[in-house]
Amino acid sequence: MSKKKVLFLCTGNSCRSQMAEGWTRHVHDEAIEAYSAGIEAHGLNPNAAHVMKEAGVDISDQASKLADSLEDIALDLVVTVCGHADENCPTFLTKAKVVHVGFDDPPKLAKDAASEDEALDHYRRVRDEIQHFVVEKLPDLLL
């Protein structure tokens, strides 16, 4: 049985899509080949890597990349995780099933935090929401 190929698409491929890729690799590695990419490439957000490591998932080796770099991969599913990516999804990706599952933007939420721990709490909440989606909902989208 071949693995299903899933792409998590975000604006900058720095946080939400990276967490989704990490969770999918961690939970569904035998059944799903996970990718993440962005409309732009902003680099891996260190706070995203930090809170994922707290949860036992190391994404520090993942790299921020442009969606165009995956043009030759026959994807089964594209999950847009932010509104901008949903509205600007590159046309070549629409050969796959495309669904939008929006998550809050942790860097934006954390911008006005009173402390580093309060800022990280925003990342932790979104991390946990993405984990729930990957565990509970993602497999059904591949049926």
TrEMBL record:
The keyword Magnesium does not apply. Residues 4-140 form the Phosphotyrosine protein phosphatase I domain. Keywords: Arsenical resistance, Hydrolase, Transferase. The keyword Transport does not apply. It holds the Pfam family LMWPc. Its EC number is 2.8.4.2. The active site is at residues 10, 16. One of its GO terms (molecular function) is mycothiol-arsenate ligase activity. GO terms for biological process: response to arsenic-containing substance. Coiled coil: none annotated. It is an enzyme of class 2 (transferase). Gene3D superfamilies: 3.40.50.2300. Belongs to the low molecular weight phosphotyrosine protein phosphatase family. PANTHER family: ARSENATE REDUCTASE. This is Arsenate-mycothiol transferase ArsC2. It comes from Rubripirellula amarantea.
